Amino acid sequence: MRSPITGIVALFVLFVVLIVGYSSVFTVSQTEQVLVVDAFARYRIKNALRFYQSIGSIQAANIQLTTLLNASLRRVLGEVTFITVVRDQREALMARIREQLDKEARRMNTL
After folding, report:
1. For residues 54 and 48, is the Cβ–Cβ distance under 8 A?
2. Which of 72, 84, 97, 98 could potentially form a cystine with 80 if both were Cys, beta carbons 3.0 to 4.6 Å apart?
3. CA-CA distances (angstroms) from residue 81 to 38, 78, 86?
4. pTM summary value
5. How far apart are the first and last CA of the chain?
6. What is the pLDDT of the chain when averaged over all its residues?
7. Which pLDDT does position 1 carry in this prediction?
8. 84 belongs to a structural domain
9. How far apart are CA 12 and CA 101, in angstroms?
10. Residue-range definition of the domain harbouring residue 67
């Protein structure tokens, strides 16, 4: 004889598995290629007063840095082929992204 709690737990687990499965699937057209690129960046605050006056908070800095990073990723990776990104020149591309991000951050003179 099964406990009603066992059935509820099993139903909950099934529900969670379905949600995770559904959220991890997406459709790509036959004429498209998709590449998911994870990136992260760190920043150093050199002048705390200037940082506070220009940005105001860590959250605002994180938002601004994310915007700059995504723009650099799209700009560099959009210029090359899929094979180049995956296999041929990954290290060189990451160096270009880092250079562009550093240049843009220095131009803004905030990070």
Report:
1. no
2. 84
3. 18, 8, 9
4. 0.60
5. 64
6. 83
7. 56
8. yes
9. 44
10. 30-108
Helix H segments across 1-111?
4-23, 48-54, 58-77, 82-83, 90-108
CA-atom Rg of the chain in angstroms: 22
State both tokens at 9: 């737990």
How far is the CA of 90 from the CAs of 26, 32, 46, in angstroms?
25, 21, 30
- Locate 27 and state its tokens: 């459709």
Residue 6 inside a domain? The answer is no
Q: Does residue 12 belong to any structural domain of this protein?
A: no
Above pLDDT 70, what percent of the chain? 95
Per-residue pLDDT tens digits for 31-57: 877 777 778 888 888 888 888 888 888
**Closest to 61 (Cα-Cα) out of 86, 76, 43, 35:** 43
Query: CB-based contacts of 5: which residues, under 8 Å, 6+ apart?
Result: none
For the chain, the domain total comes to: 1
Q: Is residue 1 part of a domain?
A: no
Question: Is the pLDDT assigned to residue 66 strictly greater than 80?
Answer: yes
